[in-house]
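Blinded run. Sample ID left blank on purpose so nobody reads anything into the name before looking at the predicted structure. Input follows.
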Amino acid sequence: MIFVTVGTHEQPFDRLVQKVDELKQYGFIQEEVFSQTGFSTYEPGYCKWSKWISYQQMVKNVKEARIVISHGGPASFLMPLQIGKTPIVVPRQKKFHEHVNDHQVEFVCNVAERMGTIIPVEDLDKLGEIIANYDQIVAGMKHGMNSNNGKFNEELERLVEGLY
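Blinded prediction complete.
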């Protein structure tokens, strides 16, 4: 299963929800997809979805998913990391009216560059290819996540504090 979450930010993230639905529609994604769509106005026709889910359901979905795709909010992509998953992270962008500024773009790029624990995707035209090659991408990452969780969390906390 692929689990998509756009979090609880009040601006829609239709661009991500629709792209995943199209990838499913046209057969680029063969497995089941569940999307938490939040305030998005696009309603998927090819993926299972719900605007909101409980925290317990979120944890269950992340644990069961082969791939987690998240927006760039730290709470949404930290939990998969804590569970041992390498999330694909798509930051919301101001130019698409998905957020008030581009702090998610900057934050996601910094985490990817400094920590190497997430797969950032700014260009949604590349999402299908990244999903298709997900296992190889993760296998090639040298982040040492399982053996270095404490150090990762401390470094990420410093990074977050530095951005605010």
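Unblinding after everyone has recorded impressions. The beta strands are 2-5, 33-36, 48-50, 67-71, 88-90, 119-120.
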